[in-house]
Structures are given as structure tokens and as C-alpha cells.
Amino acid sequence: MSNSRWLVTSVASLLAMWVLSGCIVVTGWGFGPKHWIEATEEIVLPAASVDELSAKTRNGSIKIQGVSDSNEEIVVKVKIKAGGSSAEDAQDCLDAIHIETRREDGVQKVSWIYTREKRNSWSAAVSFDVSLPGNTAVTSRTHNGAVVVSRVHGSVEATTHNGKMTLDKLSGSVRGETHNGAIVVDVASDDVHLLTHNGGIKARIENYTTVSGSIETHNGGVQVSFAGNPSTQVRCKTHNGGISHQDLGFTSFESTKRSLTGKLGSGRGRLKLETHNGSIRLRNDGIDRSL
After folding, report:
1. Which of the listed residues 50, 130, 191, 251 has the most CB atoms within 10 Å of its CB?
2. How buried is 262 (Cβ within 10 angstroms: 0-12 exposed, 13-18 middle, 19+ buried)?
3. Which band of pLDDT confidence, cut at 50, 70 and 90, is reported for residue 11?
4. Are strands 17-20 and 23-26 parallel, antiparallel or unpaired?
């Protein structure tokens, strides 16, 4: 494992603004640390015998990108923002942050901890930017921050409490959940489960076999585009909002003002779409009916 850290910037002014996860916090008025220090760190881990990567942070974004399956390394780029009541206090916060990398039963875990008791004056955001072999399974979790996972064909499970989620060019099973934020997905998967409590969901599903799963939001619209030759029974329901569909070639089709059921292909899969407050839109984005 190779490891290097460089101090990038030091000591924000009293009235500086800190931007994290789309929110702006004005320091200097008693709302948080008055001084900030940033540092970066790069960690290179062997990819051999790693079946899954687990990345976890409290505050900060997570970005994971698959590269060649034969790649022999997992590269973790870390960005740390440490804050305190003074420049010295911010430096103490930074010095207390330790990036943990440990392997258990084929799972490479990446997270961070404070190595001593956290002071009330401290605040930190730690973001991970990871490249890894594309056939690695991925689990990622952050409380406050965006999540991006791309070009992975192992299974993916991603969670954020507050932040947008982007899942792009995935082909394994997909599970994504955010409490507050939109979800944007482009997958070639037969198992898709997406949930947001507050935010819209936009998904493109390209598949030539059975598609099953659920796509749900409590407050927001749902837009799903189908491509390839998917086989599934689509069941849509909205409590407050309409349902529309475009050129999908449904069979065994039934609809009401707030619900829709239709069969694509042989209808072997089961795909549930639901929103409590918002509309549902279904469309054809390249369904191949010649197959």
C-alpha cells in the first residue's frame, strides 16, 4: 500500500463560506468552524482476491468508477476538509483523521475515524474517489454527500441520506437509496431497486432478458425508459399524479387514472413503479421488437 498526503489550503477567513453537498454554511457567525484546512491523500491497494469494495463516510461524496477487469490495483483518492475554531484547532482536527483500509473475507473496506476524542469545535468532510476493476461488487454509504458509481458490472448497493445519486453504465444487480435527493440511473441490469423519499427518479433500463425490481419515490416524479428487449410485467401506481406511456408495445394492458399494468416481452419479470406525489412517465428508448 502506498500512501501520501499533501496540505492544499489553510485557514479560511472569518466570513468564508463552506460548500458541502449543495448547502452553503456561512462561518464566523457561530454556525460552525471559523477555520478550515484541506488535504488530499492517495492510497493504492492490491486488487487481487478482492470481491467487493465497501466505502463509507459520514460527510462527503463517494465516487467509484470501474476500469479494466484485469487491473491489479484499487486507487483511492481522498479529499479531507477539517474545521475548527482556530487555525491550530483545525490542524488538530486534520491530524486526528485517519483513513482506514482493511480487508475481511474478500471485502476491501475504506472508511475513516478520529484517532482521539472529537472536540465540539471540530467538523470534517471526507470524500472518496475510487477506481477499481469493473467486476468488483460495490457497497457505498454516506450521510451527507453525492454518490456516483459508474462502469461496474458487479453488484452495486449505494446509500446516501442527503445527496444526489448517479448510477451509470452498470450491469449487475443495483440497489440505490437516498432520503433527500434525486436518482439518475442508466443500467443494463435484470434486478433494479431504487428508492428516494424526497426527489425524482430518472432511469434508463436496457436489457435483453427478465427485468425485476422496484422504483419508488415518496415525493417526486418517476421517468423510466426501456431499451433492448426487456421481459417484465410493469405495475405503476401514483397517489397524486398522472401516468403516461409512449410506444412501448404493451400487451395485457390495463390502466386507470392512478394505475397502469402492462406486459413487455414475455412478462416474466415483475417491475413495480410508484410515487406518492408526482407523475410516472414510461417511454421507448430503443426497444428492439425484431428479437
Report:
1. 130
2. buried
3. very low
4. antiparallel
In terms of Cα–Cα distance, which of 153, 150, 179 is closest to 166? 150
Q: What is the pLDDT of residues 131-150, one digit of tens each?
A: 999 999 999 999 999 999 99
Res. 8 pLDDT band, cuts 50 70 90: very low
Per the prediction, the chain carries an average pLDDT of 88
CB atoms within 10 A of CB 58: 16
**Distance in angstroms (rounded) separating the CA atoms of residues 169 and 47:** 21
The count of residues in the chain is 291
Q: How far apart are CA 99 and CA 79, in angstroms?
A: 11
The C-alpha cell of 47 is what?
A: 486488487
> Across the beta sheet with 183-187, what order do the strands follow?
2-10, 35-46, 73-84, 123-133, 62-67, 147-150, 165-170, 183-187, 201-207, 222-228, 280-287, 243-246
> Residue 252 in contact with residue 231, Cβ under 8 Å?
no
C-alpha cell at 221: 416524479
Cβ pair 227, 204 in contact under 8 A? yes
Buried b (16+ CB within 10 A) or exposed e, 4-18: eeeeeeeebeeeeeb
